[in-house]
Amino acid sequence: MNFKAFLKRKNIEISAKRYGIDALGAMAQGLFCSLLIGTIIRTLGQQLGWEFLTDIGSYAMAIAGPAMAVAIGYALKADPMVLFSLAAVGWAANAEGGAGGPLAVLIIAIIAAEFGKAVSKETKVDILVTPFVTIFIGVALAKLIAPPIGSAASAFGLLIDQATKLQPFWMGIAVSVLVGIALTLPISSAAICSVLGLTGLAGGAAVAGCCAQMVGFAVMSFKENKWGGLISQGIGTSMLQMPNIIRNPRIWIAPIVTSAITGPIATCIFGMQMNGAPINSGMGTCGLCGQIGIWTGWLAPSEEAVARGAAAIVPTGFDWLGLVLICFILPAVITPLINMACVKAGWVKEGDMKLS
């Protein structure tokens, strides 16, 4: 009982929500504000020949580990001394984790943050004890377990990549549907794709699934939510529909079926690959990051993509056609048509997708 009281006093909540939703979602935001935006800025600088922009992007990309760890600490409601100490933990975990760095950061930053919170403000020399415990535990774990964590994540991501190449139709459906569902659920599809280093054909299928959810919900709920809903869901997130999905899960049928259609079209017909930063694979049309990831992957593939055989290409008209069809046109056309069938069947009625 005393231990439970201690955990409550320290705001240490060992739960799937705290670690699997709050921390994971925050990690994706930290990754977005460092690696993702840095990749975009650096690519623009490289294409425009502006070294100043290239340097800015490179600096942003370099602090991905600390940004993720600090974001995780913020989600776990860490005290300031713990939060600031996590920067060193994130750097070490990301560096030691290699291609699977984000997963290593997620696990290790959570452990280090909770231990840091446990000792925070418990001694008269808190300014020494709290950062020492947080950094020592975090960096020690990074040295010990980050490499195998990174190797395991990288191997699983490679397995998905290879399976998609061997079975582009079935894996196109599976990856598109599952990542699309993850995007709408209150978890982070972007973080999942980053953890797995999802690039190539599998990354393209993931983008297709995310776009089917975002564009699909935005267009088929236009009558109820007008332009504000179109923008907030189409450029923001389809997660806004989760309360409505809980009330009537059948409104989810049309976007899911659409993702099962566009996924294999992306892999089998257009061979659409997402070779930018893996986080882009789980972003869909959020800030057009999925599309920017495909574009940057054409021009300057990420390290993860290069490790799996990707190389820079000059995109053709067919590549651009696939991008526009898969990400925008097909979801905007197919999803409302499927939803019309659901309405006729009495499964969905007007007002079911109204955003509060």
Tell me what you see in this structure.
The chain has helices at 2-9, 16-48, 51-62, 64-75, 80-97, 101-119, 126-166, 168-184, 189-196, 200-220, 222-236, 242-247, 253-269, 289-299, 303-307, 317-344. The model has no long low-confidence stretch (mean pLDDT 91). The chain has 16 helices and no strands. The chain is mainly α. It has 2 domains: 2-153, no CATH class; 167-344, no CATH class. Helix content is 76%, strand content 0%. It is globular and about 65 Å long. Helix 4 crosses helix 6 (101-119) and helix 8 (168-184) packs across helix 9.
Shape: globular
Helix content: over 70%
SSE order: HHHHHHHHHHHHHHHH
Main pleated-sheet profile: none
Arithmetic mean pLDDT = 91
Low-confidence stretches: none
Share in β-strands: under 5%
Rg measurement, Å: 21 Å
Q: Count of helical segments?
A: 16
End-to-end Cα distance:
41 Å
Number of strands: 0
Number of domains: 2
Based on helices, strands and strand pairing, what is the structural class?
Answer: mainly alpha
Briefly, what is this?
By secondary structure, the chain is mainly alpha-helical. 76% of the residues lie in helices and 0% in strands. The longest helix is centred in the middle third of the chain and has 41 residues, at 126-166.
Blueprint (SSEs and pairs):
Blueprint lengths: L1 H8 L6 H33 L2 H12 L1 H12 L4 H18 L3 H19 L6 H41 L1 H17 L4 H8 L3 H21 L1 H15 L5 H6 L5 H17 L19 H11 L3 H5 L9 H28 L12
Helix pairs in contact: 2-3, 2-4, 2-9, 2-14, 4-5, 4-6, 5-6, 5-7, 6-7, 6-9, 7-8, 7-10, 8-9, 8-10, 8-13, 10-11, 10-13, 10-16, 13-16
